[in-house]
Amino acid sequence: WGKEGHYVTCKIAQGYLSEDALFAVKQLLPDSAEGDLAAVCSWADEVRFNYHYRWSSALHYVDTPDFKCNYEYCRDCHDSSKHKHRCVTGGIYNYTMQLKTAEAGPSSELNYNLTEALLFLSHFVGDVHQPLHVGFLGDLGGNSITVRWYRRKTNLHHVWDTMIIQSALKTFYDSNLSIMIQAIQRNITDNWSNDVSIWEHCAHNSTACPDRYASESISLACKFAYKNATPGSTLEDGYFLSRLPIVEKRLAQGGVRLA
Amino acid sequence: AILNHIFASKTRIAQA
After folding, report:
1. Of A48, A105, A126, A144, whose Cβ has the fewest other Cβ atoms within 10 Å?
2. Which helix (H) or strand (E) holds A29?
3. Distance from CA of A71 to the nearest CA of B (A)
4. Which of B2, B4, B8 sits opposite A96 (nearest CB)?
């Protein structure tokens, strides 16, 4: 997501944190966050092109083989030649493990940077819910699909990261992110309340299940993001109004699952 | 759910 998407995801998550989790998060946040997790949920994007963090760039997405509308961890994430789990689901597993290890007790031999672990985890849980962050390798998750968003020339990935949300803010939420967040929170309690417990739980009571999040995203990418968005097409109300509910639900799911 | 799960474990150990 862009700045707005990460802010919304983390703001929603903050509303669902337990007392223990809120206390731990506030202890881990950098001073610059002033106690607000949402204020630093884009940090991973800011450092992505910084020399010292260049290794983190591949952790924001999954490269799905072209036209495969499913996700397979070993096929899409595990780089067996380098024994690396170089994708967003691997990143979520890794930083969940780092925070759990630290919580389980001060293990001297491991000196993880838990503040970075929290910020990367919060960012990646958001990203894996953006369908085109699990998009096709061939079109770079929609980055190389040039389209028009109303009159503006852009690419399909940017439409999903940013343009749909910005158009929604202008059209429905008085350009006020808090109003959009409140609307999504109302949706969670009024319309999706039965789904929340399903969203929250993972098989075998595991802490996170990013493979499920990624499978949902590639399916949505094929059904909604890529559909009716061929290179050179102009996307307007027809596309915007039918895709906005998908975006808002993915932001809600990302927030509830992060919490 | 992820952060609540991670940071709840400490309380559980304390209670155990």
Report:
1. A105
2. none
3. 21
4. B2
Asked whether residue B10 carries a pLDDT value surpassing 90, the answer given is no
Q: Dmax of chain A from CA atoms?
A: 57
Buried residues in A70-102 as b, exposed as e (16+ CB within 10 A): ebbbeebbbeeeeeebbbbbbbbbbbbebbbbb
CA nearest to A119 within chain B: B3
Q: A207 contacts in B (CB within 8 Å)?
A: 2, 5-6
Both tokens assigned to A25: 């998060």
How far is A77 from A73, CA to CA, in rounded Å? Answer: 5
- In the block, residue with structure tokens 């789904």: A195
For residue A201 the two structure tokens come to 């739980």
pLDDT digits (tens, 9 = 90+) for A34-88: 999 999 999 999 999 999 999 999 999 999 999 999 999 989 987 655 556 789 9
The model's pLDDT over A114-170, given as tens digits with 9 standing for 90+, comes to 999 999 999 999 999 999 999 999 999 999 999 999 999 999 999 999 999 999 999
C-alpha distances (whole Å) from A53 to each of A45, A50, A59, A150 are 10, 5, 11, 36
Q: Where are the alpha helices (DSSP H) in A112-209?
A: 114-127, 156-158, 164-172, 177-190, 193-200
Residue with tokens 């799960």: B5
